[in-house]
Design a protein that fits this description.
The chain has about 290 residues and is an alpha/beta fold. It is about 50% helix and about 15% strand. The protein has twelve helices and nine strands. A six-stranded parallel β-sheet has the order 3-2-1-4-5-6, sandwiched between helices. The longest helix has 29 residues.
Length: about 290
């Protein structure tokens, strides 16, 4: 079994660490708020005081944090993980981040002669708890083969996406598609209600081949007003902004790209409005509250 460090004990990282422990790996954990590591220690992990301390013996280092800023602090900040890693170790960034930051971070690892791969996930807390996350991995194919057994301890599917950044590009596409669908469902349920229809109307829509399983579930959650956070609106908005930034950066780099992401931008404005109205910490289905 491998020595694995997990950086970030939020809703996702803590569950991922538990899956690794249950798979028999020797796990070290770190979190900005140390109290969040205690349940992992009870489960069999070792806790470290800093990211740098956490990685000194690790063969694999997984980061699962909120955004670009948190990722930069964990890897490159004071007592950051990069400076403490073994040259033989592999860094795995599983957070949902901007493509430009993944490329910059990869360059930092390359300068240090340490292997890096991006491996974001599809899935939220239930999937993390059930070790059924879906991984999109970007990097060298030989590296993919090395990290695959580790990721399989936390996921039900591990996909090779291509070169560095490919995994993150797919993840941003997946989250954008989900966000657009859920926003549309909120609008359409509101439209049907204004037409005098009840909850059964959505079940009719959900039964058609036009409606995706994710959209069907989102609609039911909206009707039942289930807004407990699994994928908070604030994070949805962050991911949409990262997707928009990807296209903007491509244009600035003079790449031939006429795509303007009008649907992603429209969805982003909708989720930003929800945040302004105080729904930022509600689940993505909470978007229904603005209609």
């Amino acid at each position: 079994m491998a020595k694995v460090t997990v950086l970030g004990m939020g809703a996702m990282g803590s569950r991922m660490a538990i899956s690794l422990i249950e798979a028999g790996h020797r796990v070290t954990v770190w979190n900005r708020s140390p109290d969040k590591t205690q349940p992992l220690v009870t489960a069999g992990a070792k806790a470290a005081k800093t990211p740098r301390e956490a990685v000194t013996e690790a063969e694999y280092v997984i980061s699962m944090v909120r955004d670009d800023r948190a990722s930069k602090e964990v890897w490159l900040g004071e007592n950051g993980a990069l400076d403490g890693m073994l040259k033989t170790a592999i860094a795995i960034e599983s957070s949902t981040l901007s493509l430009s930051w993944i490329q910059e971070l990869s360059h930092n690892f390359q300068q240090q002669g340490i292997t890096f791969t991006d491996a974001p996930v599809a899935g939220t807390r239930p999937q993390a708890e059930a070790a059924s996350l879906i991984y999109f991995v970007g990097g060298d194919i030989a590296v993919f083969e090395k990290v695959k057994p580790i990721l399989q301890a936390m996921g039900s599917a591990v996909h090779y996406a291509g070169e560095i950044g490919s995994g993150m590009s797919i993840k941003l596409a997946v989250n954008s598609l989900f966000a657009i669908q859920v926003s549309a469902v909120g609008e359409l349920i509101s439209m049907m209600r204004q037409s005098g229809l009840d909850a059964q109307a959505w079940e009719i829509v959900a039964s058609t081949p036009i409606c995706s399983p994710a959209a069907a579930m989102a609609g039911r959650a909206m009707i039942e007003q289930k807004f407990a956070p699994l994928f908070p609106i604030a994070l949805v908005n962050k991911d949409l902004n990262y997707a928009i930034a990807t296209v903007q950066n491509n244009k600035q780099n003079n790449q031939q790209n006429k795509i303007d992401l009008p649907l992603v931008k429209a969805a982003q404005k909708t989720y930003a409005k929800a945040i302004e109205q105080g729904y930022g910490e509600d689940n993505i289905t909470g978007i229904a509250q603005i209609y």
